[in-house]
Amino acid sequence: MRYLGVDEIAVKKGHNYLTVVVDLETGHVVWVAEGRTASSLEDLLKKLKRVKAQIKAIAMDMWQAYISTTMKYYPLDVIVFDRFHIISECNKMIDELRRKEAQTAELTEKKVFKGVRYLLLKGQESIENDYKARYRLHRLLEVNKSLNIAYILKEELRELWGCSSLREAKQYLENWLKKAWVSGISPIIKFANRIASHRSGLLNYFKHPVTTAKVEGINNKIKVLKRKAYGFRDIHYFKLRIYALHESRYALIG
Q1: pTM of the predicted model as reported, rounded to 2 decimal places
Q2: What pairing do the DSSP bridges indicate for beta strands 57-60 and 3-12?
Q3: Strands 57-60 and 16-23
Q4: Which residues, at least 6 apart from 42, have a Cβ–Cβ distance to it below 8 Å?
Q5: 81 with 61: CB under 8 angstroms?
Q6: Which one, of 130, 131, 175, 171, lies nearest residue 153 by Cα?
Q7: Same domain assignment for residues 90 and 196
Q8: How far apart are CA 185 and CA 183, in angstroms?
Q9: What is the pLDDT of residues 194-230, one digit of tens each?
Q10: Structural domain count of the chain
Q11: Cα(159)–Cα(166) distance, integer angstroms
């Protein structure tokens, strides 16, 4: 067990969460804990440290509770911020900006904001063969400079993970941050500041190219379990059912 992925899943209404940790080499769940706080992850990390597990990388989102707990037991070099979560955060920023710009748009421009949310959040390649979608997106970006800048920066950020080396990625990211900071658009600047403060974990991907994709796959199976059982009143039993998705947990961490 050298590479781990950490993510959370909402299991009940009211934002009750489980923290799920997956061995990225086997795809097996090795830890399930209630909540998404520091304590949700700490007992696992204590066990791993006690058995001297050689953890090379832990993929996670930029959730401070997970970050701070991990750094109590392992160096920053093991933290790899998941690329898909980062782009998801960028999409949230763009959506916030879209709503803000739609509210202040002139009456003659408001119609171009209708039904375009998914176009802004999709990758450029996913609509390249859809003329109507490309035209609607073009019309929006043509009339709104702020969204145009945000969209271009989002697409450029997606290209970061195509860099061939850590050195290239560092330079690419610094150039991207400079463009974001000089945009003068507050949601973009706020997002860029967040990326800058987490740049080390982001760039660690180029040392250990791991993501939380396998954890997302497990989370989808957990959602199916929950639906089949119409929810679980006994959270301990639910956790056991999650571990039962495979049989390696006890062999791995005791």
Answers
A1: 0.88
A2: parallel
A3: unpaired
A4: 69, 72
A5: yes
A6: 175
A7: yes
A8: 5
A9: 999 999 999 999 999 999 999 999 988 888 877 766 5
A10: 2
A11: 14
